[in-house]
User: What shape does this take?
Amino acid sequence: MKIAMLAPISWRTPPRHYGPWELVTSLLTEALVARGVDVTLFATLDSITAGRLDGVVERPYSEDPTIDAKVAEALHVGHVFERAAEFDIIHNQADFIPLVFSRLVDTPVVTTIHGFSSPRILPTFRAYQDRVHYVAISEADKAEGLRYAATIHHGIPMGDFHFDPVGSEDLLFFGRMHPDKGAADAIAAAMASHRRLIMCGIVQDEGYFQREVEPHIDGDKVIYLGAVGGEKRIRTLGAARALLHLIHFDEPFGLSVIEAMACGTPVIAFNRGSMPELIDHGVTGFLVNTVDEAVAAIERVGVIDRAACRRAVEERFSIDRMADEYLALYRSILGH
Assistant: This one.
């Protein structure tokens, strides 16, 4: 089986710090290669993979302002589909633009839908649902009336996430500095609970960060570490009393949620989007509806068994499970 894995090119695959779509693309690619699958990763040419790397864009456009994103994406997607006949499956991880090429080739196309940036892009997905095999990353993110081949939750390599059986008294916010991610609510909940808050993530909305977050950063009660990667990222995810994930949108999935739980850290999240699919209320964290409920959950979070958090991820969100489910889908499409 020969797979063309089409990655986004906003960030490197795998990302240096931020880049959830690129991260999932990398995790799946490496897991498939480890299973002996012939995978060519189409990504930025600074990307890293154990499979074959191909592409036409030197660097990620989010890291190089001299690159025009639309031009780069057009060249990138076109390059993959020009080589379509060489592959058994094209697996698109790069949103809706590749869909419009799908009828121009005979190769089956699988598209993992990492969320809908706007309802305005839905007509493209509807127009090609008779040709492309869509994968939802959660039941919560399924669009009404759209045909899906499967729902496959993301998985992570458990060996990369060290279990911390103790944590600390600190709270953690781990995500984009953007109203959607609820950084301001995390600060409010931490202050009300009289606990220190460690904050990590890129600044995506500069105005929001300056108004709602930066004034509270004092290096004592609220500490901002910026974007963290590597071993520091793993240590930070594990060294917390709880992850505060007080989102203001219906999040399709939450990688930081399962990563924190893999390290033993319970998650307190607003009950929106995919959160009920990821968090077992009262077992691996708490689903809440208000900041006041989050504050109460912070005080109760000590009853959560940190080992149970890790077990839940091992059982439901491993990279092996994700890779096996995608392989089963590929085989089903190819009639193997």
About this structure: The radius of gyration is 20 Å.
